[in-house]
Write a structure and sequence with these properties.
49% helix; alpha/beta; 140 residues; five-stranded parallel sheet
Length: 140
């Protein structure tokens, strides 16, 4: 499974996005499986609906419905950990979607991620010390 952040989803579906072509080059990673969280889906759907087109936003929900994007439900017991991380990274700041990605990396025990947010995911650490591997940064 590869972690998928909202920025990648938006870049993939918005042909006017500066990272659209780079995002398309990573479509092959779908074979390994894409996984994200509801906060990320919410963020991506909002951004697409308000800045691109409702049809693009609905495409995301269809991908979830059809199993092309798997959703990890955040256990309620991890909410305090999310709060701790959001306080720790408040200078960036870390939002709910980003905190959920850190928890997902810890759940999957790896940090391979599709994201356009190199600054934040370059700073975040899962398991408090392990860096993310930004697959988008590897594409030119």
């Amino acid at each position: 499974m590869i972690l998928m952040d909202a920025g990648y989803i938006v870049a993939l579906l918005d042909i006017k996005d500066a990272d659209h072509q780079r995002a398309r080059q990573l479509l092959h990673t779908k074979q390994e499986g894409w996984m994200t969280t509801w906060p990320v889906i919410s963020e991506a759907v909002y951004m697409l609906a308000s800045h691109v087109h409702m049809a693009c936003a609905l495409t995301v929900l269809t991908a979830v419905e059809e199993g092309d994007i798997l959703i990890w439900d955040i256990p309620q017991t991890l909410i305090p950990r999310m709060q701790t991380m959001m306080k720790k990274y408040s200078g960036l700041p870390m939002d709910l979607a980003d905190a959920s990605m850190v928890l997902l990396a810890e759940h999957l025990v790896h940090g391979r991620i599709l994201t356009t947010d190199q600054r934040d995911f370059g700073a975040y650490r899962w398991k408090s010390q392990k860096p993310f591997v930004d697959l988008m940064a590897e594409v030119k």
